[in-house]
Amino acid sequence: MENSIIIINAADIPPALQIARNLSSYTVYTFDPILVDPISASGLRNIVYTPFDNCPLYHELDASAHSAAFDLERTLDLEVRDIVPEVSIEGWQHLNLYYIFITLKWYTALWENFGNQLAGTKVHLFICDTPGSYYFNSFIPSILLLLNLKSNDIEFSGFTYGSKDDDGHLIPELPEGNQNEELEQLLIHLPTCWYDINYFFQEMISTGKTLINIEAKNFNIPLPAIKTLALTELESTLANLPEEIRTKINNFSRKLAEKLDRILQPHLVIPNYRQRQTQQISNTYCAQLVTYYQLSRYFKNSKPSRIVLSDHDAGFHGPIISFAQKHSLPVILLPHSKCVNDIEFKYRNITVLSHPIHGQEIFDANHKSVLNFKIAYPETFRSSSIVGEIRTISLLLNSLSLNGFYFTRYQPYMQGIRQIVSWCNQNGIVLKIRCKPSYSIINLLERDIGVSAAELTRNANETMDQHAESCDLCLMYDMPTTGALHFLKCSIPILNPIVEYLAPSEMTLGNARLVPQESVENTLLRLKWFTSDPTTLFYFRAEQFRNYMALFQIARPLRAYL
How far apart are CA 88 and CA 236, in angstroms? Predict the structure, then answer.
């Protein structure tokens, strides 16, 4: 019987290697294009990547998962309203629930399409022994495949690995006394702001206000020389709360767990795994509720003048924003990477700040517009008055998938690249394809497009500035990326060929008024004009650069909003 090794996540590779050593023959199957490179590098043989081309379209999957998360939040909020009438828990776990639902929807569809193709083989399946949380690896995809294999009477062996402690019980350590009561305070919580944290931090320090930073459970960025509220165990804090609050939280937890178990039953039918997933979500809600009460206690006598958050909710945004709403405190939302998506909360005193490139309206959970102002990021501009020809084009790729689900279907995505490669070859133009280094698809591009892996690796290893300086024009392919800024600031013309309809979260990364978003075919027509008449290219480049610089005219330093 043929052995089939299924790799769903990069963390499956080490246990797969252990199993493969004891098999005389096997085939490795993966359905995620960004896993082909690490699987190939691991030494595993007989790798088959099977694209999922009748998959749910990402913009539909995205909308469906958001809708399911909002519906669940409303249901849970109503369920516990009589226990905690003082606060609404809507929005508190929206991002977490969104990723759980998108994972359930995607992998249910995937295994329905491919599960029976494994008939007649013995399937080796790896189960990450961790409940679903954000887009982290979890048991959800493997458990759904396990159920599919059982229903199709396919032989399999399951291997469990990677148990992770539930971090839902962690909360900020908020003592009873706030030593900064006499000073003006900014409460800050900025997970995931890897690229711009130094700028943000210096701007906040320059205000002269006291900064109180809440550590994040995930995606934390340490900030030195300021007051940081570290994380502590929920149980120790809970034990010191008044009995009335403890009773309320216990009732809250029980009610949530009962309701969640009923809601998740159709999706996770194995009781043990469903209960663990339910408990993880319930624990997080309880920790968030305790955080809400603790914020009120810590800031009892002196409230922060502003609360500054990143747009990436790492678990504490809900109670922090509910605390702000209770006391009518202004909230500033900063982008973790230049642009901000729609937000999950209904509180109206939230102002979003973003890079001038951000060109989309932002909506809250009530579908109302959110105030959005521009930050004057530190940026230098460089232009050229030379009328040049196009000799080298950058094809700038963003990630094709995340946690297995596609942003664009594989075959249309590759077909668009083939068209661009063919056009460049016919016109004597060098095309430099640059994969996103952390989500590369180099082996698949070599196989399906014919570009050498060595060349693709060299391009991926360049810094973005080096890459931009070596090109005369950029094609930001399909989903936009903030990598566009490296071209715009140097007056290198940039276009955005789109393969499939973009979801709102993808559109926020681009500004169609500045960078034309057109089909691959129409983009190539525009390139034909540019190559046949360099003056046309010169005028486009000059206008695009002028319009980009104009975006900064209304931008102000971050400190001006604090």
Answer: 25
